[in-house]
Write a structure and sequence with these properties.
- With about 70 residues, the protein is mainly beta.
- It is built from 1 helix and 5 strands.
- The protein has a 3-stranded antiparallel sheet with strand order 3-4-5, with no helix packed on it. A two-stranded antiparallel sheet has the order 1-2.
- The protein is elongated.
């Protein structure tokens, strides 16, 4: 039975486990917003980074399916 395997130490059952995709044991998986600069050193955009694989994007939602 899968339900028995998912029971916690105190005997309760976690039917809907927490969605901790943005967190890892080493800290947050997605960091940001970071400030991006153009070739002249001027701040011109914000971006988020997946610390697991290094992917960077200006749309944080794009990292929801990352890793």
């Amino acid at each position: 039975m899968a339900a028995v395997e998912d029971a916690t130490a105190d005997g309760s059952l976690d039917v809907f486990p927490a969605d901790d995709d943005d967190e890892t044991d080493d800290g947050p998986r997605i960091t940001g917003p970071h400030v991006g600069q153009d070739t002249y050193g001027n701040a011109d955009h914000r971006y988020w980074r997946c610390e697991h694989c290094g992917t960077e994007t200006t749309d944080k939602r794009a990292l929801d399916a990352c890793c």
